[in-house]
Amino acid sequence: MRSPKARCLAALLLLLLSCQLDAFAQGIVVWDYPYSYKDPWVATSTVALMEGNETIPSVTIKDLQISIINGRDRIYLLEGEGKLRYRFYQQERPAPLIFIIPGFGSSAYSGSARYLAELLAGEGFHVLVLPSPFSWNFTLAASRSGTPGLTREDAKDLYEAMQLTLNAIKEQEGATIGKIGLLGFSEGALDAGYIAKLDSAQRKIGIDTYLLINPSVDALKAVNRIDAMIDVEKKYGDRQRSYLEAYAVGVVADALHNDPNDPGFFADWDSRTQLTDRQFEYLIGNEFQKSLGDVIYTSNLIFNPGILKTPVTRSFRNARLNEARSYTLMGYIKTFLIPRSRQLGDKGMSIEKLNAQNSLKAIETTLENNQQIFLMHNLDDLLVSGEDIAFLKKVFGDRAKFYPHGGHLGNLWYPVNKNDILNIFKPLLVSSPEFVKQ
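Structure (tokenized):
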């Protein structure tokens, strides 16, 4: 039993957090949001600067692995790599747990995932980061089809991985878990929405709070936009592309010598890079295509559909990888994903059906009815339209917050956004006094 003083303190904290959530629901106007980068390409590129410090007081960071699918550890050329790699930020005491699902192609160790994990762990949460379904590791270790891209099926694979890793950190790492939240961003936000539908029906985890950051709404529209970025490479010759990539790596590496927690770390990025919008577009598209190529390469080793023609052996792999990286997202969908779906039993799979099944609109009822699903989005996100924003406003209502600038994920590091993320999950900390940060 709690003392009257403890009950009063808990009530006061819940009242304060309720007020914060009411403020969250009001949205944001331009004059209240002095974010520096009005160009969405510049804003989006700041994601490259997001890194973790790898040190958090009273938190142990553990890089863990778990077997999910039998036989995936014995795939030719990928022997011994078939376990899912995840990262766990463990508090010294009992605490709520936040799962993080990152964006397209990201591992559990990607800079943006680490940055957000450290933000949450620093406030007293356990945090467990999984890789994106569109990463080579998830494709190999946890994708039942071996061909990610159907969000409904990816969400099932993620949901199973969440259950297994949750049991593992309890049983093997001795973690005491309170309430559970899920944060997904970009592609991971779309996955999180579908997981909400699964968990509402099955309650195998019992997720209390969801936060979706910058999800796409219309899958086909997002695919076409990303492919347009990829297509920019045709504007440059081989030497120009090599120079741009090397230059970008150098600029980011130079920036990362500084402390990410320094107030000036993200300042003047536009003048420091000296890149045009088209150059940013090429670099962002190039990263998407590389991640996609890694998935195609891995998928074709798991089951060989005979599509990639370049020979591959232990001593001759790069040519096959380069062939895999030549595909656009639409090329992947038409050449690999749809045929694989038909092979696995969905004979009527088509572009139109895939788009309908991969859209937030397919789970509109879940998003409307579950009052614990929150949204953060940017009005100038490169992957959504005005029509998409209108849909999100209608569905989420006062559970959504829209920012005038930030591009795609380019304001995750901004103090206002970090506070808004924390305010969504803080009620999990005060739901019972033993989990309140000391």
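The first strand starts at residue 59 and ends at 66. The beta strands are 59-66, 84-91, 95-101, 126-129, 177-185, 209-213, 373-378, 400-403.
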